[in-house]
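[job 4471] stage=fold_predict status=RUNNING
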Amino acid sequence: MEPRSYLICAEAGSTNPTSAGEDPYSDLRVPIIANSRDAGSPKPSRSYCARVWAWPFNVVAAIGHAIGVVLKLIFIVVCLMLYSLLLMPGFLRMIVYYFFSKNVVRGIVYGPKPRQRLDLYFPPDARNGVTYPVVIYITGGAWTIGYKAWGALLARRLSEGGVLVACLDYRNFPQGDALDMLEDVNTGISWVLSRIHRFGGDPDGVTLVGQSAGGHLAGLALIKQAEQAARGYPCLGATPAWSPACLRAFVGVSGAFDLEALAQHRGGHFRGLLDRILALDDGGEEAVAAAGGGGGASEAEECSGGGKAAGGGSGDGQIAAAAAAAGGPAPQPQIGDGAVAATPAASLGGQARLPERRRRQPRQSRQQPRQKRPAYESLSPLQAARRLPPGAAELLPRVLLIHGTADKTVPAEGSARLSEALQTSGAPCVRCCLVPGKTHTAFLLEDPMRGGTDLLSDTVLGAALREGRGPGADLEEGGAGGADGGVGGGDGGRRVYGSLCPAFLCNMAGWVCPF
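[job 4471] inference complete, writing structure tokens
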């Protein structure tokens, strides 16, 4: 039955009936209840002609909207094809480097789950007995097309500057949702922190870098680990545990840090895709918090790789051979080579994990489908930074956020807001650099392929090689110096890099860039 709304007039609750023949409207003590739809004036009905002529206009409007969407997609695809063709000389050279360079070791297993692999880029002159600063790079790809090879160009520049680079792969949607991606990223970071010493890396000199969606995952993982360490019990998105104090710096490049603003900015079909990627089970975060208490943050305090195991050791024999072939330091077999941990928890030496009670639910409850809802606030680095408990921000390393003001994919305001939130929460060193005229891909593709000076490479090298100095110092002083970095510098101390693609093609690619 359709619910009815009512107007209640006069005094309610009176039970005195009116006398016979008396006008009931004359006694205000008697409640008069009338249907509000009948009490009001009737709605003017549309004329027959209006109804007849309305539907053709609605059909035309719907067709026009569909045509507009199709034309927009065609325009984006054409721009993307032109963009790829213009940069094809550089892409071809990087493909050859990635597959045939002796300094690249591909497909190292860091965990037992799908796509838990990483690539290592050794310095060209790597020697046994020498330790090198380490950069962990998390690639972008809109959470759907990310791949570890996308970081080959930046990794090549960094390795040539004397840095050992680990490019992590992780599950993409629909193979996994945002929580699965966070688990992969946390597992990979923990693996590097505990085992990179076997490949000549310095576990006390690790810099975390993330771009676009990779910036979101890396930034959120870092903030969640700081929150978990401060609270002393497991937090959603911080499994397995590792200590944020082990990092020298975090560099976020064109990162998707404000998810709510990003969803509003993109809208349309991409908003629907984001709703599914950034979805959580109802009550998932509350269940982790309620079941916590056996905290694990304190178990991940050691930074130096002296035996805190990490998962994914299968293929270590091939890794040793590949590292030796690359001229790099051969890993010392301190942990059983060829063994892969059965679970991430076992592989991480007892580090913090989700509570056992979640894994020991009755079979029938596990089989029940769970309702998922978009969780932009729970999975947003900006909101996580604003909710940091006292003392958590002090555990964070130095933070540098770089974003181009011409970014059409991820608004630059998100980086500025995250920087402000971290400073408000008490982070020791946070800087945000907004670069005029740079697009979403300029730092990663057009600029390094063009050659000459490279802002991103210089900045990351400055953060990785300069102990005791805040990231971004080279932005203020004209670049990372050649003396400190171990390579030659150009004018004003900036490095000058070789070109992979003619400059005019890179400039044209920037004009047609759809990002």
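[job 4471] summary: The chain has 20 helices and twelve strands.
[job 4471] exit 0
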